[in-house]
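Please fill in the sequence for the structure shown.

STRUCTURE ENCODING:
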């Protein structure tokens, strides 16, 4: 197992984020061909936990949070070569470590990850809704 270092709100170049997303299942559902949009996604997140293997970005938890009541975990991504090492689970723990005790994490699971979240303690919620602007 690789030595992984976790960092909070470390300045990150968008090209590193795009490279990571292209090497995990999340990349197919993110605008990786639009670096300006990806940069805005990164810039407007107010809690970003990253996982590093030496100088290589291997995981990210990109969040929007008020730090006390709710954290929306917008992206949880782990590089394909680093899957099944507990990195995703540790990223979630780091999110919890950087928010208050009773702050709830909310997320929308990617289809490929639906079975992952109950395995690590998440509870399904039946009334999540989405609305895309201009739809």
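FILLED IN BY: designer on duty
SEQUENCE:
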């Amino acid at each position: 197992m690789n030595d992984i270092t976790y960092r909070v709100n470390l300045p990150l170049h968008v090209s590193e984020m795009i490279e990571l997303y292209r090497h995990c299942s999340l990349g197919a559902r993110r605008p990786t061909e639009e670096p300006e949009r990806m940069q805005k996604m990164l810039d407007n997140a107010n809690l970003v936990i990253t996982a590093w293997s030496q100088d290589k970005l291997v995981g990210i938890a990109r969040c929007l949070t008020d730090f006390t009541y709710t954290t929306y975990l917008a992206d949880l991504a782990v590089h394909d070569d680093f899957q099944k090492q507990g990195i995703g689970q540790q990223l979630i723990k780091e999110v919890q470590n950087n928010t208050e005790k009773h702050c709830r994490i909310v997320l929308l699971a990617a289809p490929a990850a639906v079975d992952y979240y109950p395995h690590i303690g998440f509870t399904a919620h039946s009334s999540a809704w989405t609305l895309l602007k201009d739809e």
